[in-house]
Amino acid sequence: MSEDLMRYAARMDIRKMGAIMPRRMAHIAQGAPVPPKLDYAANLTAKALHPACQKLTVAEVIEREAGAKSFVLRAKEGCDLARFRAGQFLSFSLEIGGSTVTRAYSLCCPPSWAKQGQYMITVKPSEDGFAGNWICANWTVGTEATASAPLGEFSYTRLRDARHILGVCGGSGVTPFYAMACALAEGSEDFSLTLLYGSRDRESILLGAELAALEKRCERFRLVNVLEDEDGYIDTELLKKYLPEEDCSLFVCGPAAMMRAMEAAIAPLGLPERRIRRKTYGVTEAALETDWPREAAGKTFTLTVKMRDEVFTIPCAAGESVLVAMERAGLEPPSRCRSGECGWCRSRLAAGTVYVPARTEHRRKADLAYGYIHPCCSFPTSDLTLCVGCE
Question: Based on C-alpha coordinates, what's the Rg of the chain?
């Protein structure tokens, strides 16, 4: 024991220590009988950045090429909008024909718009479309909408991605890249983007004038329009032509048919998987996948759903996803991205078998081992029993 410690111990009066506890208990007795409810700054920030849902109003409708429309959405008066990264999406909850369905739409505006209290999405109707066609036909100025917080990993992350991105898109798949180009032009992102944009013809180039203007303003953004009627399709040779010699990340976004073709075009490039980001939009059609079990064609199975302490028995066609079958029956299962990535719809398959397209297989190994599926991209191959929101 040091001399200083010895001197300190000699000065201590052990008799006084017995009075410490009564004084402490007296102070505690003067306090409130319940703990104070505090709104910690970190909790308030987290709630603002990741709200459970956002109430929005259509403030402006802008006509676009090929029948598409852009919808400027504003927050309810007095409310802030959650911030986002260029490339992320919103999941909208829609009441259509007596059913509640969700659809994901990429934010089609620079991230700075959120600080100004507004978002923008661009929706393109299609021949066999459902939600997109309904939105374009029904949303007008003043329409109220409910959306999630911004979601998704289809955005530049410095620790994960190379400083140069080669983007490939078709049709409405241009919208997240438009947000990235806007972010580069305003200086909120720090990378270079070369975009190969496939369109049917010049009249079909969605946001064409806006993209061309961004290319003139921003030296870090390069636009290459690939027209089907003039240039053909984006293939391996075209990718090699624009693939930079330095380290590069490849971002691909488009409909399911394009994404299937791009997998074959990407393979010869030899890029490491960590450098490839994919985003599929539209509904996955099992029958168009090369590995779909053809013996299931035309069959309808029985789907038993255990959800919210209730049990439902509904039909589920082999060609429709388990999620679509539940929505069609009027159930409201959780869902967000609808492409198998986010895991929001993750549910336990208690009985039966499903087909999952290889390109939408994003489940963790533990989920594969313990029987969990993502209903949004799972298709029945037998009668099923599914536990939704319960372990």
Answer: 27
Beta bridge partners of 196: 168, 224
CA angle 356, 93, 350 (to 5 degrees): 35
pLDDT tens for each residue of 86-137 = 999 999 999 998 888 999 999 999 999 999 999 999 999 988 788 999 999 9
Six token digits for residue 368: 């594969």
Residues 6+ apart with CB under 8 A from 241: none
H/E element, 144? strand 144-147
Listed in sequence order, the residues at least 6 apart from 60 whose beta carbon sits closer than 8 Å to its beta carbon are 71, 72, 141
Q: Are 193 and 182 in contact (CB under 8 A)?
A: no
As a dihedral over the C-alpha atoms of residue 268, residue 269, residue 272, residue 277, rounded to 10 degrees, the angle is -100
* pTM, full prediction: 0.84
Ordered by where they begin, the domains of the chain are 45-147 (2.40.30.10), 164-281 (3.40.50.80), 288-388 (3.10.20.30)
Question: Quick one: pLDDT at residue 72?
Answer: 98
Over residues 327-349, the pLDDT tens digits come to: 999 999 999 998 888 889 999 99
Distance CA 37, CA 21 (A): 27
**pLDDT tens per residue across span 342-387:** 889 999 999 999 999 888 888 999 999 999 999 999 999 999 999 9
Sheet containing strand 69-75, strands side by side: 99-106, 89-96, 144-147, 54-63, 69-75, 118-123
Residue 262 has a pLDDT of 93
Number of CB atoms found within 10 A of residue 230's CB: 10
The one-letter code for the residue type at 199 is S
Which tokens in the block code for residue 121? Answer: 């999405």
Sign of CA dihedral 355, 357, 361, 365: positive
